[in-house]
């Protein structure tokens, strides 16, 4: 299976980069894994709704340019479905069984995801009603993908 994470914004903190590198290495045992980092658009202070919409659309176009037609897209969205770790593991396993060997998880920028990206998504996933910095969230997402593979392989992983 091919798992890709498309994330708007660069990782800046060394400790977060180290965590992402560690989970990327661990995931390579289970799947072909890669991360696509896209530059975020600068949001001016006191940006108008129109300016924010334009920024989300620019970021959204960059995201969509990196998604192939045969890809199952999971958008991380506050309005998405909340699932347990076991349910996420089942979802990843079921997608593979059904022949969806290319899965993309999308983490938007600080303003969220453009409507076009949400329309392209096959599934919208929410980790929490809380808001997290996208840099930290990337680590959390990788940990949950890794946990999913451990669960699916019957390997021990703390609960």
TrEMBL record:
Gene3D superfamilies tied to this protein: 3.40.1280.10
KW rRNA processing (keyword) present: yes
Enzyme class: transferase
Keywords noted in UniProt: Cytoplasm, Methyltransferase, rRNA processing, S-adenosyl-L-methionine, Transferase
Binding residues for S-adenosyl-L-methionine: 76, 108, 127-132
Principal location class: cytoplasm
Residues forming coiled coils: none
E.C. no: 2.1.1.177
Pfam families: SPOUT_MTase
Entry's transmembrane regions: none
Matching InterPro entries: Alpha/beta_knot_MTases (IPR029028), RlmH-like (IPR003742), tRNA_m1G_MTases_N (IPR029026)
GO MF assignments: methyltransferase activity
Assembly and interaction partners: Homodimer.
Protein's name in the database: Ribosomal RNA large subunit methyltransferase H
Origin species: Clostridium aestuarii
């Amino acid at each position: 299976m091919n798992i890709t994470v498309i994330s708007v914004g660069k990782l800046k903190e060394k400790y977060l980069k180290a965590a992402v590198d560690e989970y990327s290495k661990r995931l390579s045992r289970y799947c072909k894994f890669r991360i696509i980092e896209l530059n975020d658009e600068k949001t001016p202070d006191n940006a108008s709704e129109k300016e924010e919409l334009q920024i989300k659309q620019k970021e959204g176009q960059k995201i969509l340019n990196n998604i192939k037609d045969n890809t199952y897209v999971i958008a991380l969205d506050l309005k998405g479905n909340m699932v347990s770790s076991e349910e996420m593991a089942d979802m990843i396993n079921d997608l593979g069984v059904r022949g969806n060997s290319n899965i993309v998880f999308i983490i938007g920028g600080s303003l969220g995801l453009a409507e076009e990206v949400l329309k392209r998504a096959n599934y919208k996933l929410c980790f929490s009603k809380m808001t997290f910095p996208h840099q930290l969230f990337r680590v959390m997402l990788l940990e949950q993908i890794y946990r999913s593979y451990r669960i699916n392989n019957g390997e021990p992983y703390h609960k």
